[in-house]
Protein 1
Amino acid sequence: MRIIESLEEMREAAAELAAGRRSSGLVPTMGALHEGHLSLMRRSAGENGVTVVSIFVNPAQFSPEEDYDSYPRTWEEDLAAAKSAGVDIVFHPGAEQMYPPRSQTSVMVHGLTRGLCGMSRGQGHFRGVTTVVAKLFNLVRPTRAYFGQKDAQQAVVIQRMVLDLNFPVEIIVCPIVREDDGLAMSSRNRNLPPQYRPRALALRRALELGRKLIREGETDPYLLANAMGQRILMDSEIELDYLEIVSPETLEAVEKLDDLALIAGAVKIGGVRLIDNILVGPDGPWED
Amino acid sequence: MRIIESLEEMREAAAELAAGRRSSGLVPTMGALHEGHLSLMRRSAGENGVTVVSIFVNPAQFSPEEDYDSYPRTWEEDLAAAKSAGVDIVFHPGAEQMYPPRSQTSVMVHGLTRGLCGMSRGQGHFRGVTTVVAKLFNLVRPTRAYFGQKDAQQAVVIQRMVLDLNFPVEIIVCPIVREDDGLAMSSRNRNLPPQYRPRALALRRALELGRKLIREGETDPYLLANAMGQRILMDSEIELDYLEIVSPETLEAVEKLDDLALIAGAVKIGGVRLIDNILVGPDGPWED
């Protein structure tokens, strides 16, 4: 497994791959790799000649009050995990290379970034994400790029960016990977104080409640959101950031649950922000 | 010479070029081709295996009150001119393909787009330019792309975008091509009412006056701009949009003319907006 730290070396490696007509898969990450990331890497390794994982904690997608400094960094473990998942290249650029002093260009997806995490984290969060992903696409020039459904809005936003800017990259969104008890895997889970770990399931339980109510025939998004929200707020130590029922394409609130919908939420528990979501319609699916 | 009108066909042609390891040059234009454009095409044809010219009057870079509808369109002449200049592919997409209904992504270079034409045309103009150029880069995947120095700010903005987003494209900026009397070639010159044609030289004459004063030792940008502005405003039928002396890299106003500076201006004559510029420092160059 090759480790590349300079943009120039990554660019040359990408050019060699293109010249050799080898397909490549990119898995963009911020490190602190878990089974969710590894599922993306294994999928890529099975579908492409070469798999590149980028590990870059991207300052542009954190607002000043967010957890950039405390975001988990586990470099040695990440390398071992990537190797075990069949990764060929780990691309690990420095922030000073990615954002040199006079850089001033950003990529922005406008409408889709207003709600959900865009409402709570600010549209600047997604501007940071799309800008860095555009940079990674240009540096790595992958055939395919892999993202997790856990960050459902991010996946929709990136697919929109790829369509709108005509990036020659196929976007593949992979299912959420969960702990045994159902908690969605997330690098931020590492930052949960142990006494809060059991409570971290509250959002998952609320989403499961929503799915159960839909299976029983409920189609009113307001009543559904209300029932799910109450389930979360039973625990006074949990802060509910948002819980919304939206179209999986437009991310706009649905007025009636008559088709597949994305139910997505974010909570804060013990100072850590966690997100989760399910896709469900009046005909299921009833499991994920 | 091949004419490509669909994005998909352009994408396939670009993939074939890449697979054949052939270098390609892109000359992005809005058509109404003149000798300025042709100089870019000839340069590209000399430096690349394949030259692609895009012809697309980009609605996103015109504000509602600007001349999108009256912008000259000369398709048949353009094809003949491109062929004569050694062009291999003319890429001519439709606006409905380039901006499908739900497209909502833009590329923005922030600081550099505030002054000069960004002040008068709005930063949205350059957002439209950088967005469409990013799209063209992704569709055509050129080795090199060619722009004219006439649109000096545009050239600086695009070079910044390429650096900031790590596009694997070499940007080549070519000298202004002028009519015999010195008027900078521009597609918009076609829209000049004949009686205004002689007056269209006012901006050029003012820039030459500025250079003469600098050669004589003047280094105060305020005095220089004042003298040049007065020269233009001698003709009460000419509207001076801006005339500024800025750093060629940062586009910020210079306080003293002690290094190479960009003197750039825009005027309105007979309803037509014209731009021109020179690069000059205390040691010249005294001609262009």
Protein 2
Amino acid sequence: MANKEIPYKIYLEESEMPKYWYNLRADMINKPAPLLDPKTRKPMTAEDLAPVFCDELVKQELDDTTAYYEIPQEILDFYKMYRPAPLVRAYCLEKKLQTPAKIYYKYEGGNTSGSHKLNSAIAQAYYAKKQGLKGVTTETGAGQWGTALAMACAYLDLECKVYMVKVSYEQKPFRREVMRTYGASVTPSPSMETEVGKKILAEHPGTTGSLGCAISEAVEVATKTPGYRYVLGSVLNQVMLHQSVIGLEAKAAMDKYGVKPDIIIGCAGGGSNLGGLIAPFMGEKIKGNADYRFIAVEPATCPSFTRGKYAYDYCDTGMVCPLSKMYTLGSGFIPAGTHSGGLRYHGMNSTLSQLYDDGLMEAVSVPQTEVFAAAEEFARVEGILPAPESSHAIKVAIDEALKCKETGEEKTILFGLTGTGYFDMMAYEKFHDGKMVDYIPTEEELQKGFSYLPKMD
Amino acid sequence: MANKEIPYKIYLEESEMPKYWYNLRADMINKPAPLLDPKTRKPMTAEDLAPVFCDELVKQELDDTTAYYEIPQEILDFYKMYRPAPLVRAYCLEKKLQTPAKIYYKYEGGNTSGSHKLNSAIAQAYYAKKQGLKGVTTETGAGQWGTALAMACAYLDLECKVYMVKVSYEQKPFRREVMRTYGASVTPSPSMETEVGKKILAEHPGTTGSLGCAISEAVEVATKTPGYRYVLGSVLNQVMLHQSVIGLEAKAAMDKYGVKPDIIIGCAGGGSNLGGLIAPFMGEKIKGNADYRFIAVEPATCPSFTRGKYAYDYCDTGMVCPLSKMYTLGSGFIPAGTHSGGLRYHGMNSTLSQLYDDGLMEAVSVPQTEVFAAAEEFARVEGILPAPESSHAIKVAIDEALKCKETGEEKTILFGLTGTGYFDMMAYEKFHDGKMVDYIPTEEELQKGFSYLPKMD
């Protein structure tokens, strides 16, 4: 324990919590490309998006010039129920690895939703409520986002309708019950409640559903039900804006103790947690005020950054949502059944995609058996049982710490620990029983995914 | 929000964490009655207990004169990974109830084991390790204690053998996998690994086990395996000693802000969390330095305090453990299948029993449907999804706050929120579906339980 004065967990005072979200796009030299209308191929306007999203969220989505958004007091009050989240010095992991590196992680799993998703859920629910809406719809796969949204809606007395991929609905009844505890209605998707659901069920009787289908049902209900809008838990820039609270808190905690990270690591699925963690640090780097290495970690089964193309693509498999320019494997790419459901998205947030394309960020992909081995090693010494998604960051943080051991460098590593693994024990069981396999898509499979990319002439 | 300067969550600094456990027995005027040998009916000596428990823990168990035990540095370091636990001001619940009462809760569920059990698990594992032992055995029902012990043993590199009641082993595979993640071996009980297990299986083929049987197996293995001892997660006074860290932290946090509780409430199964929470406050009350109301909350299905007898009884259904003088329903009393497994114990910690008999503490029993209604109301406004056990305390805290609403009194209420309900969603599901029933034992059932009490002549 080299640095005696740094506690195991750094908690900011309530008065030190961020009062603004940071919109990294405002400080970027090359801005992310705009969303395009899938039919006209013209940039989406606020008017185009208003039937789907609340007005304030549309504004945030399209705004790449305002650097700071004041966090409304009601949201700050909600944040105070589970934030500030601790910045943890991983003394025990350092000791176990016998590394000279100093390892920190920002732990976002200490709330009932079990992940960082709550940071954006409360913001989106708040703006819906403020607009006088009655309720919101969304889709959920594994259930973390749906749980977070249900919690936020219960708090604000807003209706919450969740379309849950049918296979998850059946396999993860506990997640479903948590949402019901928070008063959400949870419908297995595809359902007979929507036109798109009926159509899919007619074409594919007995299907267990997909995230793309659940999105389509949620969007249909939101646009057809008076007083409803649709909300989304990742990928969008508004979500990354809200998630900047992660990075702002982490930076404030480090600044308080005079610590500067050399390497910042996060897992990347849709990109919002990684984007939120790195935002204030990246802002400094772009302005030339500091230098950091940023590493996005993605699953080998779904390597958007490391093996994808930077192109305009559909955000959803149903091809109804706007086109976004991003690193993508193609909206028709179906990743193998990995146990990190939160990272099984074919594309990547457009802001992160631009940063990666500009060489401001690195990316690596890792196979899941190595991820679970790292997760277990971490759990045994640091106590916290990590979510498989978050464990991608753990794996690479350990790798970097071991490199320091070889070279003797005392680097400071910061990574994002976004969630807990309580609801992923079936995956851990497979790992313990030696039944977990790695799957790396072939070139042919990738090419097939790319064939879904829209022609942009 | 009457008291603006008090944050939503009070975290002590690491330097403010308790460095001593408090042994309430030292300050009691009427000491709890000693453990008796079940055969000779003579007080158990350190020698008698040494084959079962580690030496240091035996000392703590028998010691009713030393008021403070210094917490070893290694245990303090482990505590720093998940402590200090927050003292939360329930602003949102107060607002919802529109009560003038000020409600606080000490939240012990924010660690991976999901409960306060970790506070004693690390202590017991530490003393086992220090004595040069190879491993420990224990039993677990729902799995919270087993998980906590597995985590502590993984940290100290100690072997951990858990006998898990077979029905839980099969119904709660996730709990089992968390323990395996922490390197514990988990055996469904009854098993063919022990003499007692073989005997029970021969007599009752196909039995799904019981806690009493699992205890007997764990004790047999501990006493027959060189370098092993048995450890227990509640009921014993050593456990209450370790759990005093809950009350000491809560009191330090309240003192820091000049807050004094009027009423202190905790759920009571074996009694260790309640005992730990109230210990420092009760010490003040006994010395005449302050006055508090203490309320133990137990399930209506298993009302040891409110309908039990104060008598010497067996601690286990197998009748092999020492006799303890306690409020008890009789070791043969089988409580109805409530969803608060952690509170389904026929007896009560001997120290708490003496305090209750001396009129220093009150007790109430509540039916489970009311407990789940309170749990859901709490979850929706305070964010945290509570364990059914902990929700007994929530129920009575809400009742007391509503009484304040009627009378206009601004009382300060403190309750213990000992754990999360992540692994209890099947119970919540029953509640949501209106399938949960209340069961209150009849006088006849109670008399049958009392018939198991040993004759003490």
